[in-house]
């Protein structure tokens, strides 16, 4: 197994990636290219195509709903990384549509990869477990407004029995870079809109976080080394209290910090109010992942008033 893992690490791959120009995806593309891989990026617009090509990737035009394009991209690749998602959380209907579109896209990519022994790295979320930090062994989230994502990812992991080296990177609620991104970024956006840096409940609930550049390293490591059917936690900060996050945001924006109604956060209100710390101890030990970039609270100091 050691020799096989070493071989996987050393082998340069042509990687098809969806969502390659977003906050996380752009970091993943840079990480892949700087480690000897080549990239084919799915792009929906001239602007995203230009950004991907400037970074050094080849591009193929289409979106997650273009299933034939997805199959064509996967057919040209030695491995696939899926990151794209429509982050419209304005209504329950919008969330449901995004989840359904992603599920169909994952199914199309899966069809192309079955029996090929190629790696397929997809994205999931760290689960919430009452009373403790969640671990890589805990089951995925399959209920609630984004439960469909968990079910689709579980189907991808099941491809391990059909000749696909599938793996899931579970991202925490906040993946950040330069003070932007994730649930903390949503708190910042809402604070700007409402004039209050708010938090639901008493604010003692904890959210895990990771810097986008550290998450990108884990996506590469999983592509190169992860065994089929495995889940990994991209968690650097096990859990910051939401009121501590809101306090930094309020100070940076010069706004009052206080509890607000969970309804402020629309369909995500229940998720925002949940205590959901998460551990990455197994991921660090098994894949040698070592986060080194700023923590969330430190990175939020980059928020501009």
UniProtKB/TrEMBL annotation:
InterPro entries in the cross-refs: Epimerase_deHydtase, NAD(P)-bd_dom_sf, NAD(P)-dependent_oxidoreduct
Gene3D superfamilies (UniProt xref): NAD(P)-binding Rossmann-like Domain
Residue ranges occupied by any NAD-dependent epimerase/dehydratase domain in the UniProt entry: 15-230
PANTHER family listed in its UniProt record: NAD(P)-BINDING DOMAIN-CONTAINING PROTEIN-RELATED, PROTEIN YEEZ
Name assigned to this protein: SDR family oxidoreductase
Organism: Plantactinospora siamensis
């Amino acid at each position: 197994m050691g020799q096989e893992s070493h071989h996987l690490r050393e082998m340069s791959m042509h990687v098809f990636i969806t969502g390659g120009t977003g906050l996380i995806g752009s970091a993943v593309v840079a990480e892949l290219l700087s480690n000897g891989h080549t990239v084919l990026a799915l792009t929906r617009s001239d602007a995203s195509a230009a950004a991907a090509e400037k970074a050094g990737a080849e591009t193929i035009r289409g979106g997650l709903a273009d299933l034939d394009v997805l199959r064509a991209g996967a057919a040209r690749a030695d491995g696939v990384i899926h990151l794209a998602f429509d982050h419209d959380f304005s209504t329950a209907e919008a969330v449901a549509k995004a989840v359904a579109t992603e599920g169909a896209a994952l199914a199309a990519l899966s069809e192309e990869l079955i029996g090929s022994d190629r790696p397929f790295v997809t994205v999931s979320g760290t689960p919430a477990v009452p009373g403790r930090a969640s671990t890589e062994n805990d089951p995925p989230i399959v209920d609630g407004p984004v439960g469909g994502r968990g079910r689709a990812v579980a189907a991808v992991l099941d491809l391990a029995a059909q000749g696909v080296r599938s793996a899931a990177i579970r991202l925490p609620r906040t993946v950040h870079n330069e003070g932007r991104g994730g649930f903390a970024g949503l708190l910042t956006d809402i604070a700007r809109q409402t004039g209050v840096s708010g938090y639901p409940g008493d604010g003692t609930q904890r959210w895990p976080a990771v810097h986008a550049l550290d998450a990108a390293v884990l996506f590469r490591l999983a592509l190169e080394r992860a065994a089929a059917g495995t889940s990994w936690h991209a968690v650097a900060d096990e859990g910051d209290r939401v009121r501590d996050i809101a306090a930094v945001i309020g100070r940076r924006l010069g706004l009052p910090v206080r509890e607000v109604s969970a309804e402020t956060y629309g369909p995500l209100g229940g998720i925002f109010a949940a205590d959901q710390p998460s551990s990455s101890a197994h991921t660090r030990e098994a894949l040698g992942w070592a986060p080194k970039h700023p923590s969330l609270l430190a990175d939020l100091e980059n928020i501009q008033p």
